[in-house]
Design a protein that fits this description.
Layout: H1 3-19, H2 23-28, H3 31-47, E1 53-57, H4 63-70, E2 74-79, H5 82-89, E3 100-105, E4 120-125, H6 136-144, E5 147-158, H7 163-171, H8 175-178, E6 187-190, E7 193-196, H9 202-209, E8 213-221, H10 231-236, H11 238-251, E9 263-270
Helix pairs in contact: 3-11, 6-9
């Protein structure tokens, strides 16, 4: 791992360590968190099949890993944050007779630390963990080394253009915040720390993965459903939020709109190269 990547990774890991104990209350169990996670879970069961071996990156507190295991998948769940892994390990185990979860403290940049000869049917990362990646070509190459030919990679990360965020801040007269994802050196505040992040374009991600993976499809996550900072409003407007979820289910894969959610969910397939 290069020095720059190491610093990038370490800062994010420390920040997530600080919020690990409260993360589920801050996002996982919130109205918006559930609304944005639901369409991702629908795609997970379409893309990854019963009995398959899945590598999850940026697993956080293990919410998605447990869901996959409860539905018959065998998951190796990784995160750079020791705090997140500790919280995940303390969660109730999957139901007997279903799949399983194994948790490892491994960062995105450290996939060479996975067990020797590990080869997975698919790789998955949900929400914003991959926005901490600073070297996409290197990341793509390391992912390619652990996915079998024909395997799938499903990644969900903050998009470069978020329609709901722009509209929200414009309506509140906060024009600089409305376009903050276009900043030269964007950052995020987490656990009292400022961490460097990026909002890569679809073409940037596709180009990085292209030598090994082809992009099959993509969809917006949180197109009309707003970002998590709007949670206080969402708590007071549950019925309206439900209507926004319905709009997302209709328009999330429309051209142009599919790239304008709070997150974008991208499905790649591994070639034979």
């Amino acid at each position: 791992m290069s020095g720059a990547n190491s610093v990038h990774c370490s800062a994010a890991a420390i920040a997530f360590d600080r919020v690990a104990d409260s993360y589920d209350e801050l996002f996982t169990r919130t109205a918006i968190g559930r609304a944005q996670r639901a369409p991702v879970w629908t795609e997970l069961l379409k893309v990854f099949h019963d009995g398959e071996r899945i590598l999850e990156l940026n697993c956080g507190t293990g919410e998605d890993a447990r869901f996959l295991a409860q539905n018959g998948r065998f998951v190796t769940a990784c995160d750079a944050s020791a705090g997140m892994i500790a919280v995940a390990k303390n969660q109730p185990a999957s139901e007997p007779g279903s799949g399983s979860v194994r948790y490892l403290q491994i960062a995105n940049e450290e996939l060479d630390r996975l067990p020797a000869n590990a080869l997975y049917d698919g790789v998955f990362s949900n929400f914003s963990g991959l926005n901490c990646i600073s070297d996409w070509p290197a990341f793509a190459q390391s992912v390619a080394s652990v996915v079998r030919p024909g395997g799938r990679v499903l990644i969900c990360l903050w998009s470069r253009v978020c329609l709901a965020e722009i509209v929200w801040f414009v309506l509140h007269g906060q024009f600089q915040k409305a376009f903050r994802r276009f900043a030269d050196k964007p950052t995020a505040r987490l656990g009292g720390l400022t961490i460097p992040i990026s909002y890569p374009s679809i073409s940037c991600i596709e180009s990085a993965l292209l030598p090994w993976f082809s992009l099959e499809k993509r969809k917006a996550v949180g197109l009309f459903v707003p970002p998590s900072f709007v949670e206080p409003w969402a708590q007071k407007n549950r019925k309206f939020l439900a209507q926004l979820e319905k709009l997302d289910s209709v328009f999330a894969q429309w051209p142009i709109l599919q790239d304008m959610g709070d997150h974008v969910l991208m499905e790649f397939v591994r070639g034979s190269q």
